[in-house]
């Protein structure tokens, strides 16, 4: 009996100030990944421009667009042309004064299979997302596609075990994380390395704890703070694809634009969960306190 496999790809790229050039670069790399057999391609968070959340500037709201809109139209065309599923990331203008950080899934026929609105919104130096994004209201709901049920989450979501677990409990077959994360160059090197390793480790742990393959796609390159108040962010790349035991199937470097392609054995989740039956042994009768902010 043959295993059910899925060849997945991701695009790790730098972003400049030109929206069309950024999107065209993504599309070129989607083509490259598809030429190597990718059936599903993940793009990084907010891939049509620079990471504008380094500052709070009302002019940046002009970057938002509706769904469907120009970016989903472009991704739909390439998905249909190549017969691949594409996961993109959009600054969604939902209504006047209402915006989301939204991942979109275009199925292999070009149709909009679904969207996920980022649930956890950070508000930290260099990552002032609460100014721009309303927290998601679609829940942790996987998106059904022609290649399987996708558990799509976005960046800050990747630090929360609850998000990955809820996607797994809803039947997600693979976890996907479009991301924009890097370090402040003023931070000492040891701390930079600790931050990066923590980011990689926590996501591999989500794969392990849920017995699911996982794809994390980060941007790369330096982007200055437009306000000049801080140096900017050096995005650390290191995008990767791993299996349901957290094993690396492919990993990108920290400083190079690239794409990755790897074939995932989708039947291994069944095998791994039989050996490590976390879902069976969960004490759901004893977890009520998870719904509290903090136990005193």
* Chain-averaged pLDDT: 96
Strand order within the widest beta sheet: 5-4-3-2-1-17
Helix-and-strand structural type: alpha+beta
> What is the H/E order?
EHEHEEEEEEEHEEHEEEEEEHH
Write down how many β-strands occur, each being a DSSP E stretch of 2 or more residues: 17
What is the CATH topology descriptor?
Answer: Nitrilase/N-carbamoyl-D-aminoacid amidohydrolase
List the topology elements.
Layout: E1 5-12, H1 19-35, E2 40-43, H2 70-82, E3 85-95, E4 98-106, E5 112-117, E6 123-124, E7 127-128, E8 143-145, E9 148-152, H3 161-169, E10 174-179, E11 182-183, H4 189-210, E12 214-218, E13 220-223, E14 233-236, E15 240-242, E16 248-251, E17 258-265, H5 268-275, H6 278-281
Parallel strand pairs: 1-2, 2-3, 9-10, 10-12
Antiparallel strand pairs: 1-17, 3-4, 4-5, 6-7, 8-9, 11-14, 12-15, 13-14, 15-16
Helix pairs in contact: 1-2, 3-4
What does this molecule look like?
There is one protein chain. With 296 residues, the chain is α+β, with helices and mostly antiparallel strands. The chain has one domain (5-291): Nitrilase/N-carbamoyl-D-aminoacid amidohydrolase (4-Layer Sandwich). It has 6 helices and 17 strands. The chain has helices spanning 19-35, 70-82, 161-169, 189-210, 268-275, 278-281, and strands at residues 5-12, 40-43, 85-95, 98-106, 112-117, 123-124, 127-128, 143-145, 148-152, 174-179, 182-183, 214-218, 220-223, 233-236, 240-242, 248-251, 258-265. The strands form 4 sheets. It has a 6-stranded mixed β-sheet. Strand 2 (40-43), helix 2 (70-82) and strand 3 form a beta-alpha-beta unit. It is globular.
